[in-house]
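Reviewers asked in the last cycle whether our approach scales beyond single polypeptides. To address this, we selected a multi-component target totalling 804 residues and predicted its structure end to end. The input consisted of the following lines:
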Amino acid sequence: MCVSNEAAVREVCERFDHDRTRLLDVVREVDERLRCVDDRSMDAIARELKVPRADVEGVVSFYSFLSTKDKGEITIRVCNDVVDRMKGGDEVAAAFEQALGVPFGGGVGRGSAGAGKGGVDGGDIEGGVSLEYTSCIGMCDQAPAALVNDVVVTRLTPSAARTIVRKLKDRSGSEDLRTLLADSFGDGNNSHDLVRSMVENSIRRAGEVVLAPYESDAGLTNAFSSSPQEVIRVIKASRLRGRGGAGFPAGVKWEHTRAAAGDQKYIICNADEGEPGTFKDRVILTERAHLMFDGMTIAGYAIGATQGIVYLRAEYAYLRHFLDDVLAARRRDGRLGSGLADGFSFDIQIRMGAGAYVCGEETALIESLEGKRGQPRFKPPFPAVKGYLGKPTCVNNVETFCCVARIFEKGSAWFSSIGSAGSSGTKVLSISGDCHRPGIYEVPFGVSLRDVLALCGATDVAAVQVGGPSGRMVPPADFDRTLCYDDLATGGALIVFNQGRDLIDIASQYLGFFIHESCGYCTPCRVGNTLLKERIDRIRDGHGHPSDLDYLKELSSTITTASRCGLGWTSPNPVTSLITGFPELLEQRIPLDPSNNGTGFDLETSLRKAGQDSGLPSYEMEV
Amino acid sequence: MSKAKVATTSLCGCFGCHMSVLDIDERILDLVQLVEFDRSPINDIKHIEGTVDVGLVEGGCANEENVAVLREFREHCKVLISLGDCAINGGVPALRNMVPLKECFEEAYLQGPTVHNPEGRIPDDPEIPRLLDKVYPCHEVVKVDYHLPGCPPSADTIWAALNALLTGAPLELPYQLVKYD
Ligand SMILES: Cc1cc2nc3c(=O)[nH]c(=O)nc-3n(C[C@H](O)[C@H](O)[C@H](O)COP(=O)(O)O)c2cc1C
Ligand code: SF4
Ligand code: SF4
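The resulting structure, written as structure tokens, was:
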């Protein structure tokens, strides 16, 4: 495939009105139709949208779901997150590689080369197939998981991987991948006609706010009966803080956005959910879409916006048609559109990401929405003053908007009576790793980590990663600490590690994640994390030196101080929390009599590798 | 006062840094007032006996012999200096780190445009030091105390550094000496 097709490119550009701020949508769609954006397509896009060719290439090269090289009809993206690998992801990856006869990142195969040597016999995969790794796709509670184009496949085993390859070979023409690959569909709306996914919600505990039954429209109606100023006052009184991680008071953000000068304002819902181990927004989007749209509409009313945008991560593309359909229904029912409340009009559109964790950062998200590389902006100016297309913009998390709607249904006093003093309401947690009942738990803020671990059936716990890699790795001594903004803050991820796990290796894998996802703008973040990983790997492999700990601390503090955005500020956390929480683990791994003056250089290892790489016989000889 | 001992070596370098040492011109007469040369290509002494005060290392480590020499220097030198960009960063030889080792051998001995090798053999005698998997800067193999950058560092830089180290005077490297454009 990937025959650059100028007519197709022109048609796509046409559909987006040759609007250069829709460049990402254009390249996404070209990539989807032609299965890559090659040189000629990029030329054509640049011509059609009248943008420099470098801008087009800049965008295509930034997002990991876009490619300049042909990907074939099918792309299988295997999730290589820590939890997936804990659950056997490496064996699944190997099985895919063998069955398809294509290595990871190794171009397009047809699946025929694999036959006979662990491969699956039979014909070719029509149109070709490529194999890639991808960062956490938000399925940790049903890991290992992978994406086959847009279709999520979960709870994989090597034999399940071979079955998938077999089915792809036997697939006739345009058979729907969703029905082909799933034996049965998941619970709730996962079985909805427009979703048809094997993904499961695994809601283990519904709390009082987000996942509780609610009265449709009550929040929206109540909010519209107050003035916008009053709405903001209620949100401030509820003490609602952002659920996306940073915990900024929602009412204050709304007030700033309302006060900012601008003829047009925007509400953005951050559904990028890229923090490894976080999958609660996926479940909320599946089961509480109306509630979230209610919240966005209320926010639009409060700040004086007429347009809302949901930025949906590419990994959740399987929910796209379902969400579009919910929006269409809302337009039909008069919950979106004009004249919602005296003179207030509001509409919402869904826009897609293309595989970049950093795009969850609100200014990077806005850049991405404007059709650029997802590179964070300098702040100030904050989005509240100068956001999407330069206009005042309020960005909130999926869960935050759900809380908003519930606050207007039940009142701010009700909301602030739940949770702890500094953190009102509940938090939807996504728990995964070494526990008996991974899944979704909505708990009131202020609950202790110990209680949560008991809920999810975690025994034999060596550490809990609270808040994903950008959060902290918490040792057992701290399990009586509480989950709230003032103690252990989390955007939702809780990953449990038992005594059998190598925590140093986990820290190293998380650094690998940040290295992969760094936008590359700041040297401390781009280079620093690579240096951190090198040194941590050295310790992991038993070649560490006592002075390494000081080196790691100093480098971590440089990265944190000198980076531009939250990714860089938090990227050394896997290392610093290991040093503070698990010093004895590092000390045990560092040899008492460190050889090599602490450089970690090992002559035997180097020569063995050179022997393997060169294949020369002299490396085999004893010296 | 007895003279300080200095040892120098060229690992995977081009000898440019050593040429630069010689470039201190007549100041070499002052230098020999201060120092006595132990192992160095200048006098062809093969091994360091005892302890030397300052070791100057040119070039990074590309093969097992480089590693052995560097380790000997570390063991015997009180102060070890990486001299020049190859020692500090791997330099030009480290360009091979981007190319699989097998391809490097094939390009060098089989396919290169100027290669004449009718038997198509890649030299593989046990006498020849084996290449490492990649070229390492010196401080990734042993602890290095100081780095003198430049390709090569200018004679003035080397002179200033040695002079300061041996006389105990503070080291002053004016901007012109450490600016490279
Ligand atoms: C690297 C990075 C990734 C982020 N990813 C997300 C995300 O996936 N979802 C989210 O809601 N917030 C994310 N954030 C936080 C957002 O920048 C922003 O604070 C948040 O969306 C605001 O909404 P809230 O106040 O409702 O939490 C991320 C921040 C950083 C620095
Ligand atoms: S800190 Fe990292 S991700 Fe953030 S702007 Fe800098 S390089 Fe990009
Ligand atoms: S630094 Fe420059 S002069 Fe010195 S060995 Fe390397 S290439 Fe030669």
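Residues 64-76 of chain B form the longest helix (13 residues). We regard this as preliminary and will revisit it once experimental data from Aim 1 are available.
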